[in-house]
Amino acid sequence: MSERQHARSTDPRGRAAQSHAVEVQPDAAAPAMAPPLLDTVRLTPDALRTLQRTHGNRYVQRLLASAPDVQRDVSSRTERRRRGRRAAAGFEEELAEDNSNLQEVMDMMGEINLNALRHNDDFCDGMQERLSGEQFTLLAAAMILNSSYAPAARQEALRVLTAQLGDPDVARRMLDRDVEAVIVPRNQKMTDLDEFQSLRTRQTFDGRWWAHVRGVGNVRVGSRIYVALAEENLLGGAPDPGVFDAIPGTRVPAETPQGGYTEGYSTTTHELAHGIHQQGLSRQDERLIERAYEAKAEETDDAPALFENHWVDGPRVSLIAPADRAATGESDAQWQTHVDGLSHRQRKSFECYAAQNDHEYFAQLSNAYLGANTGLEPTTLQPRNNGRGWVEANESDDMLALLDRIYRNQTVNEVESSGELTAGGRRTNPLPPPPPTTAPAAEVAPAPAAAPAAETGER
Ligand SMILES: [Zn+2]
Fold first, then answer.
1. How far does residue 362's CA lie from ligand 1's centre (Å)?
2. Stronger pLDDT, 377 or 445, i.e. the higher one
3. What distance, in Å, lies between the first and last C-alpha atoms of the chain?
């Protein structure tokens, strides 16, 4: 959802982040700053101006030259356009007449240049005309993805994004609206990244700190729209516990570290679905989603439907009294009578995620369609529903047609017709590998940090 509406871009469990990134401290920075540190430096225009004053122009030039990535942050719209023109000229020069080497050219361009191509309308027009639908999808995914903070997750992110951008009209609108999907590394808070800094000391609609949330679907900064994807959800495992630390000097407190999601559950598809909903669809499509949500909400407003398995996330409310109420002696029957008597507004905190609003409803339906809605719903603790088959049997023909049009029968997990993950099949958010059994106990990594060595090496 938008940062305003989105309240909960990931499920209630989705969060994390403490910054181990190097922050530029203009006053303390020594002119002989070692280049290797700069891989993780993110320079804001303000920080750059201060550096320029304190250390001079030459120092800043050297800084930029040693870390080309930082230029992404300081480039103006005009500069981005200029880079877009340059990148397009290079791209077109390299692309063979029959487009057979598209992947090769994309690999050669590098991500910054691919991202810059979004700002060249003529190029987008030309490619949309010239490439097959499948090729245009591949290119659009690469133009939208920013994996500069977590390059190890790039391939998996492209695989997932490609499954969601199969409708060229949707993909093109996302490019035109300057949507950028940024991968948040597992060892940083989302709000440590410049792109999501505006959320640093703010809370979601349901009272969670954005600093501890691990994804968001639609944050506007200037003319650009950012979507946050989590490295740990793409590659499997949990975020670094440090991402739940407090932010000193602010109201943001420390929180109990959260683990990762169920195998196969994708926060990536969920967040990008929010981006698609708000930036990639027509007003007519948005109305269709609103109407479908309202109809489902009305059908399940009272018992017994309130407690039945009608939503993509299972029942709207659990038949079983929540633990804290049961602890006061409330029986399940008393709980059901109580919650049935409440309005949607009053009982929202007991309702499944998809029932919260039309945006979460669409994002979770997208997950199910893409085979990525595995696991238990965190509020009701009931199993989520998964697979296109479930959508077909339980949602309107219009909704199925919309999802078919957007996602074109793609999935990100191999699933059975029941929605179960296929044994040994391809999946996103895989289980982390077991710790090595031969290592002495003291050297075994702590459970939550079950990341491949390539990622943990960044810390
Ligand atoms: Zn959401």
1. 9
2. 377
3. 30
